[in-house]
Amino acid sequence: MIALHDTVKTEFVEVSGRRIAYRTFGSDTTKRPLVLMQHYFGNMDHWDPSVTNGFAHDRQVVIFDYQGVGFSEGESPSSVEDFATTTADFIRALGFNKVDLLGFSLGGMIAQELCLRKCAFISKVILLSTGPRGGEGMEFAELDGGRPPSSEKDILFAFFAPSESSQQAGRDYIGRTKLRSVDRDLLPSNTVAENQLIAIRDWGRQTLNERYADLGRIEQPTLVVAGLRDTVLPATNSFILANRIPNAHLIAYPDSGHGAYAQFHELFLHQTKLFLDEGQRNGSFSLP
Known about the structure:
Elements: E1 11-15, E2 18-26, E3 34-37, H1 49-56, E4 60-64, H2 80-93, E5 99-104, H3 106-116, E6 122-128, H4 152-159, H5 164-176, H6 190-204, E7 222-227, H7 236-244, E8 248-253, H8 260-263, H9 265-278
Parallel strand pairs: 3-4, 3-5, 5-6, 6-7, 7-8
Antiparallel strand pairs: 1-2, 2-4
Helix pairs in contact: 1-9, 2-3, 4-5
């Protein structure tokens, strides 16, 4: 029996003199490992187990805490560039030659930066509820003067649409994140929240230079996923990513917000597996 999200033990690897916490689980197959990179103020226990366990049935899954988050040592970076450096070192420290990346929100910004650095270990990329550098409406003004979104009420408001169906999906997601009862991760600190906010705001800041030009340099097959009612990071940014990245495809879910992948977890899992497994055929990718 393979270890799963709610039972696998937390492990550590040294990266630049600091211990980085991670959990790896799933089937040991010839498929590339899938490395998941978390959202702002998120830890390993914020991932939806129905999705991580779904991936783990036929591939190795890796989730981890960014530097300074949860069980990981050090101080949280305050730039996407520094996040990318630590993440690249972490992946190399695990000994992987080729991986697929799934980046959620902040994690999607880090994934883009890694692709732009031409990291040879990246095969395919899933950009989930994220945006390009200098994107639209990425000031994150809702985070001013308040505590980070950590309560169940905060999550329902920020990650799910106001409709009853979306809110119920949010409550179901929260319930699933509680399935792990032993060795649960530590909540991020206020310092983490402050530094990560600096990082995502700097990434979202618009400049006078040509916007989005770098996206044309991303060579990896890319799947962009969005919730059409995302109030945290407007879905317009996902359309920009899909239009500007040369080999990108877009999935947009209706009546859903920043946590669209969790609301449509079964469909999301099915579609992303098609992308990862069947992939590109003569430059095309089709969904049922």
